[in-house]
Every structure is written in structure tokens, then in C-alpha cells.
Design a protein that fits this description.
The chain folds into three domains: 126 residues, 3-Layer(aba) Sandwich (Rossmann fold), CATH 3.40.50; 219 residues, Thymidylate synthase/dCMP hydroxymethylase domain (Thymidylate Synthase, Chain A), CATH 3.30.572.10; 71 residues. The chain is 33% helix and 23% strand. The chain is built from 16 helices and 18 strands. Helix 8 packs across helix 14. The radius of gyration is 28 Å and the shape is globular. The N and C termini lie far apart (84 Å).
Length: 483
């Protein structure tokens, strides 16, 4: 047996008897709810209790048990926030394998695990009832005399980058998410996680993502998402419920039943009232942070919300929504967060009779757990296409008139905002013209800037060599100037 057990995420787990035959997965419900009810006798039977937020996390349940194959019962309990339990059942009961790890591992280990470990689904049952069921379980010996440690690929090292503020924009949440993952895989700084989690994460500070076109009447579920439509519905139920139940909090509780001096306030309804009375009201704010609870733990279990603030405002007849996360798991939670916020924005827009505007999500600490980085980089590598969007600041039309380059800055509808001219000669080039464009901030997107740079270089070459230039088209021959 491996002397270091559990091998993965030991800081995040409640540990009982290493030789116990029961492992408990509490899904989204805090471990404390169940571990606080473990009696002296049960502590001999239960080996480990831990949360299982995501499907990806089950890989490490599998890995840990194979390091010490004494667990014969896996208890699945608590509240399931995004369909993780259904995934576990599919794998354990039906033998279907999903996810890159389970696709690559030798199937004999999966089959041996499934035969040797009994999954008991107790989702939604009270913690005391779960403990009574565990008491009745009979002890069993190991399901395998051999241990197995599966190889784990290492993530690529990050490249140097700016320290603060990363901005992305896309029509859909899936397009934005792919760009988010690419940024973190390229530039995320490796930092230690707080002791209760342990390990490391890759983090970028102040990532702002703008979603302009996601339609919640038919949300687009991309093939590289780690969830499906049913999982998303389950997440919405958890996100919007005003009752926290056994949870430390729910976003719905903080938004729809925020407690102040013993009274519960529906902040979303108040936001709607403010927006109806004055659509430019800068006080249409929902706060999810409760200092008396979140800064000073006065109730158990103690966990603090990552989503801290939501603000709405109208602009040009559209309802805009901005959300601020103090901390955001960009792999395991960000897409679901984004869909739920877009749904909230859609519902408020209907109530105040406004068209849908952009959704902006600001993640102060945008991170990915180091253990998830290989999977993240795999998703990025398999989906290399970067989604090109029009620059919201307008278009740049490049023309050649004699020995002059002409750049017309137009609105998306084609109206000319400003015209720039630069004469090209033996000692003069496009450098001054480029400087003017940068000074006037006419470009907001990197891909747009690169494209314009290429076109300006081609136009300059056309002037010098007497070629016919048309933007984005192949240049036609002609005699060089002066020959």
C-alpha cells in the first residue's frame, strides 16, 4: 500500500480510518454537514469524506481508491448542483467512460473498480439518515491486492505577460470560454491555494469577459463543455433558489432572500423597481457579500460566495448586466455561472421592457486548479480555431490614391468617422499613420490590429512598386515607380 494516502487533495478531505471500507462523496454540500455526525464507531468504518463538485473530480476519487483499494462502498449524497451524480452513475452502473482520463486508462482497471466498489446513491437524503444507512453496511476486505498509481501528465509552463486586466469579447459563452482557457493556459501564474484546498492553481488577475449574443431561449451547448442541457437546468435550480437548506449559502439566497436585521430582502425585485423608475440608476446593485457572516464566521458550515456583486444599467435602450466575482474557477464553474447570469439578465430585461444588452463578467482572481490544467490545455489544443469578431469601435477601410495611403474609420453601419492620409515616399512610410491610428484608439481587438497592420504594409508596397491595391485582395502587377 502507498504510504501517502490519500494521494490527491488530502487537505480538502475529512479523513477517518485509512482501513475503512466506506468513502462518502457529498457533491455540492459541505463536508461538515456529514462529518459532524460521524460517531466513534462510524469513524472506524468511514475512510474518507469529500465534496465532488464536477465530473472531472471523479477521476481523483478513482485514483485515490486505486492507491489504497480498501474502499468497497461509495456513498453519493448531498445536493447535486450540476448533474455530477448522473455522470458517476453512468460510469459505475453502465460502464460508459467519458472524459480524457477514463478514455485513456486501461478498461480492466475501470471494470475491476466497478465490480469491487458498490455505489450507493443517497442524493438529497438528510445527513443523519445517510449515517444510519452506513452503520448497516458490512465490512469487506480489499477489492484488489495490487495497488495502481496512474501516470499524470504535466501542464505546460506559463509564458510571461502583463499582470492585470485581461479583456475578452465573444457572442456566445462557449466562444468566450475557449478564449478564457487559452489565456490562462498561456499566461496563468502558478500560485499556492489556501491550506484548506492545498496544491496550486494557475491564476490571472482581473479578467473581464463580455458576452454580446447568447440567446437563453436556445442556449448554445458546445461540444467541449463539461456539461449538457440537463446539467445546466440542475445548476439553474441551485443558482436561483432562495433557500439555502444545508448549504453554507446559495447565490439565490443572497439575491432573493438577503438577510438584514432579521428581515429577508429580495434584491432582484428592488433592482427591477429602480430600473423601471429610472433606467440610468447607478444604484441598481445586488450584493451577495454579507460582512457579518462572510468576514466573521458566525454560522456553520462556513463558506463564502465567489459571486460578490451584480449591477444593472440601461444604455441605448438595452439592459446591460455586470457581475463581479472575487474568485472564479474558470474551468469548473465559469460557463455555468455565465449561463445563469445571462438567464438572470434575460428575466430582468423582460420585466423592465428592455432589449438584451451585453453581459460583462469580471473575475478578480480567475483561476484553474493545477490538476485541471492538462485537461484545459487539451481542450484548447483540440479547438484551435479562435473566433473572429468585428471590432466594436468600427472598421478601417484602406485605399491608395497616387502616392498617398488613405484610411477611413467607419462605424459598423458604414458612416465615416474620420479620414487619415499619409504620403509614401523614399524616406516616408506608414509609421506616422500607424501612430495616428493608435493615438486615436480606433482599434480595440488584437486580431483587428494585426489584420490592419498587414493591409497597411501591402498598401505601402503597392505605392512603392506601382501595383494595384485592394484591401484583402491579391495585388496585381505593374511597373515599379521610377522605372
Amino acid at each position: 500500500m502507498d504510504s501517502k494516502w490519500p494521494k490527491y487533495y488530502s487537505q480538502r478531505l475529512w479523513l477517518g480510518n485509512p482501513d475503512g471500507c466506506v468513502g462518502v462523496m457529498t457533491l455540492w454540500t459541505p463536508v461538515d454537514i456529514f462529518s459532524s455526525l460521524v460517531s466513534k464507531n462510524l469513524s472506524k468504518k468511514i475512510s474518507v469524506i469529500g465534496q465532488l463538485h464536477t465530473k472531472r473530480g471523479f477521476e481523483f476519487v478513482f485514483r485515490n481508491i486505486w492507491v489504497r483499494p480498501r474502499i468497497r462502498y461509495l456513498i453519493m449524497c448531498g445536493q447535486d448542483g450540476c448533474g455530477t451524480g448522473d455522470y458517476v452513475i453512468e460510469l459505475m452502473k453502465l460502464g460508459k467512460v467519458q472524459g480524457s482520463f477514463f478514455e485513456e486508462v486501461d478498461k480492466k482497471y475501470i471494470d475491476e473498480f466497478r465490480k469491487g466498489v458498490e455505489l450507493i446513491d443517497l442524493r438529497g437524503k438528510p445527513a443523519d439518515e445517510v449515517m444510519k444507512i452506513i452503520e448497516k453496511l458490512e465490512y469487506k476486505g480489499v477489492f484488489s491486492k495490487k495497488t495502481k498509481i496512474f501516470a499524470q501528465a504535466k501542464a505546460k509552463e506559463a509564458r510571461p505577460s502583463e499582470t492585470l486586466v485581461f479583456r475578452l469579447e465573444a457572442k456566445t459563452i462557449g466562444e468566450a470560454w475557449l478564449q478564457v482557457l487559452k489565456l490562462i493556459s498561456q499566461f496563468g501564474r502558478k500560485v499556492p491555494r489556501i491550506h484548506v484546498y492545498g496544491g496550486f492553481e494557475r491564476m490571472l488577475l482581473n479578467m473581464a469577459v463580455v458576452i454580446s449574443g447568447e440567446d437563453m431561449a436556445k442556449p448554445k451547448i458546445w461540444h467541449y463543455f463539461q456539461f449538457n442541457k440537463d446539467d445546466l437546468k440542475a445548476y439553474f435550480k441551485n443558482f436561483f433558489t432562495p433557500k439555502r437548506g444545508e448549504e453554507a449559502y446559495t447565490y439565490g439566497e443572497r439575491m432573493f432572500a438577503y438577510e438584514v436585521a432579521g428581515k429577508k430582502i429580495d434584491q432582484v425585485t428592488l433592482m427591477v423597481k429602480k430600473m423601471r423608475s429610472f433606467e440610468y440608476n447607478k444604484g441598481a446593485v445586488v450584493t451577495l457579500w454579507q460582512p457579518e457572516i462572510d468576514n466573521f464566521p458566525v454560522r456553520k458550515p462556513w463558506r463564502t460566495p465567489c459571486l460578490s456583486l451584480v449591477q444593472g444599467i440601461c444604455l441605448e435602450g438595452k439592459f446591460m448586466l455586470t457581475a463581479y466575482f472575487r474568485s472564479n474557477d474558470m474551468y469548473g464553474a465559469w460557463p455555468q455561472n455565465a449561463f445563469a447570469l445571462r438567464k438572470l439578465q434575460t428575466e430582468i430585461a423582460k420585466k423592465i421592457n428592455k432589449k438584451m444588452g451585453d453581459l460583462t463578467i469580471i473575475s478578480s482572481c480567475a483561476f484553474v486548479d493545477e490538476a485541471d490544467m492538462v485537461e484545459v490545455q487539451s481542450i484548447v489544443d483540440k479547438n484551435k480555431k479562435m473566433f473572429s469578431e468585428f471590432d466594436p469601435r468600427g472598421n478601417l477601410i484602406i485605399e491608395v490614391e497616387g502616392k498617398e495611403l488613405v484610411v477611413k474609420h467607419t462605424t459598423p453601419s458604414g458612416e465615416v468617422i474620420k479620414e487619415y492620409r499619409q504620403k509614401i515616399g523614399s524616406k516616408t512610410g506608414v509609421a506616422d499613420l500607424v501612430e495616428k491610428l493608435i493615438s486615436d484608439n480606433v482599434i480595440s481587438r488584437v486580431d483587428h490590429g494585426i489584420s490592419i497592420g498587414i493591409q497597411l504594409a501591402r498598401a505601402e508596397m503597392a505605392v512603392k512598386f506601382g501595383l494595384k491595391f485592394e484591401q484583402d485582395k491579391e495585388m496585381k502587377g505593374g511597373a515599379p515607380v521610377g522605372r
